[in-house]
Design brief:
The chain is of the alpha+beta class and 114 residues long. Helices cover 39% and strands 39% of the residues.
Length: 114
């Protein structure tokens, strides 16, 4: 059985968070936690929260064991872009885009695939 968790509108650029997400794709939940704990990025903190939510959904709603869970699917899409302006030289202004992300983590147990 599989379950998932989504964090929409995470305040991190998708390019930066995808590098961290690639580290845990396809790993077991216990191994992914260790990787995210030792990776010192903002993306690792956000991804670990989504992972914990997906694991909680699997254990509480479906009654699965945490030791059997692994990451089935993860992806990160681009969310809304917040447009901000900053004062530039000669009385002008520059546009600063604050990019957001949608983080998706799906976990399942190994027994289903074997």
């Amino acid at each position: 059985m599989e379950t998932y968790a989504i964090h929409k509108g995470a305040m991190i650029a998708p390019r930066k968070a995808r590098m961290t997400l690639d580290l845990v794709r396809g790993k077991s939940v216990i191994e992914a936690r260790k990787i995210l704990l030792t990776t010192n990025t903002k993306g690792s903190k956000l991804i670990s929260k989504v992972l914990e939510s997906a694991v909680a959904n699997a254990t509480n709603n479906l009654g699965l064991k945490e030791e059997d869970l692994y990451i089935v699917e993860t992806y990160l899409n681009e969310g809304n872009t917040l447009k901000r302006s900053k004062i530039a030289s000669r009385g002008g202004s520059d546009r600063r885009d604050k990019r957001t992300s949608h983080i998706y983590v799906k976990v399942g147990d190994r027994k289903e695939t074997l």
